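#struct-help
A.M.: can someone run this one for me? Single chain, 103 residues.
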Amino acid sequence: ALRAALELDNDDFRLHVVQALWDIGRDVELTVPVLLKILRDPRHPGRAQAATILAAMGPDAKAAVPTLSAVAQEPFSYTRVKAEEALKSIQDRPADRGTDSAR
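D.P.: on it. Structure tokens below:
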């Protein structure tokens, strides 16, 4: 049902669906393209939320780096801050492979 909901023409709702899909199954192939579509629309009100979700994905969202880098070059805004945070999370945090001895 969540996968089908991604086809709806309501990006605000789709952000919630993407979050649920990520939380449930860590499905990068379904979730990242939706988030990138939102980030690429400079007038979309959900851009900061999309960047926040990408930040939570960490290195799994590495395909988003070019788009987030472009957003990080925009004039200062909340969205730009969230894009910068996402870039840091994606690039600085090691991929979780279950071998982190610091846990």
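A.M.: thanks! Helices lie at 2-5, 11-25, 28-39, 47-57, 65-72, 78-92.
D.P.: also worth noting: The radius of gyration is 14 Å.
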